[in-house]
Design brief:
Structural class: alpha/beta
Number of domains: 1
Number of helices: 10
Number of strands: 15
Distance between the termini: 38 Å
CATH topology: Metallo-beta-lactamase, Chain A
Radius of gyration: 18 Å
CATH architecture: 4-Layer Sandwich
Helix content: 25-40%
Order of helices and strands: EEEEHEHHEHHHEEEEEEEHEEHHH
Largest sheet: 7 strands, mixed
Shape: globular
Strand content: 15-25%
CATH superfamily: Ribonuclease Z/Hydroxyacylglutathione hydrolase-like
Length: 294
């Protein structure tokens, strides 16, 4: 558990799918304690072990959106911490209570056996889940968490501003940049990627003049508008490249994007970044209405 802001915010490596430093969740400690995101269900034992070893008792479990690397462990954590309240955007709540449609969507993207890797997605009792809305504030003590609706990556996503540190927990409202692979990779998955909303959400976060963005993929990054515009430019570039590719050219275009990332990072593309590249390209292709031939 890495300290981000003095005795306030801690980053937990979920060791997602056996990889280190690719999926983080964040613990905010005050008079009450909140865990922002939960990792995959298959990471549950790692997260609980980390919390228990530091004598942490959760008051709030807050998945920023209902993609399984962010919400998969929510039911297991709620079971382990029976007094904790689960909080999510109103449009995400139904999927936490009844994850059947969520699971089917995940299988369509990743394949029918993917839960063997991601872990089973369990329902959370309705009385344990509370809906939040854009602009709503949760007070943990001296710390205030402001929920910010940031669609584009997903229509059920919130980011969170923490008042005392002036940091923003971005969820996937910004592209990924891994510590061990420093190329910028847009987070543009199917089925609901919307580039206009994605850009608007990034600029909204940039205008907060935060000290840092705390990203799930992975860790603290700059929060300047200059960086935001760089992230937007990368996403626009990928959309432009893919919009010009015909159906039988998609594989070649994927290779072009892969080479660009490897040149930027100065090393071969690792498996976890390959997975994100593929899923992000799928989301852009779906937005463009193009067939996916890979």
């Amino acid at each position: 558990m890495d300290e981000i802001a003095a005795r306030k915010i801690y980053m937990i490596d979920t060791v997602a799918l056996g990889f280190r430093r690719i999926v983080a969740c964040y613990l905010i400690m005050d008079e009450r304690t909140a865990l922002i995101d939960t990792g995959y269900a298959s990471s549950l034992s790692e997260i609980i072990s980390e919390l228990v070893s530091h004598n942490v008792r959760l008051d709030y479990i807050i998945p920023t959106h209902v993609h399984l690397d962010h919400c998969g462990g929510a039911a297991g954590l709620a079971r382990h911490f029976p007094s904790a309240k689960v909080m999510a955007l109103s449009s995400a709540v139904k999927h936490l209570i009844n994850p059947e449609r969520l699971v089917e969507s995940v299988k369509l993207v990743y394949g029918p056996d993917i839960l063997n890797v991601f872990g089973n997605v369990e329902p959370i009792p309705e009385e344990r889940v509370q809906a939040v809305s854009d602009g709503e504030v949760l007070r943990l003590g001296g710390s205030e968490l402001t929920f910010l609706y940031t669609p584009g990556h997903a229509p059920h996503q919130i980011s969170i501003h923490e008042s005392e540190s002036n940091m923003v927990l971005t969820a996937d409202a910004v592209p990924a940049q891994y510590p061990d692979f420093r190329a910028i990779i847009p987070t543009t998955p199917p089925p609901s990627f919307d580039p206009q909303q994605y850009e608007e959400s990034m600029r909204r976060l940039g205008r907060l003049n935060a000290r840092q963005f705390l990203t799930p993929h992975y860790g603290p990054t700059e929060a300047t508008m200059e960086r935001v515009e760089k992230l937007i430019l990368r996403t626009r570039n990928w959309i432009s490249i893919l919009s010009q590719a015909g159906g039988d050219e998609i594989g070649h275009t994927m290779e072009t994007l892969r080479r660009g990332l490897e040149e930027e990072a100065g090393k071969p593309l690792p498996q976890y970044a390959e997975n994100l590249l593929r899923i992000s390209v799928m989301g852009i292709l779906k937005y463009l209405g193009k067939r996916q031939l890979f």
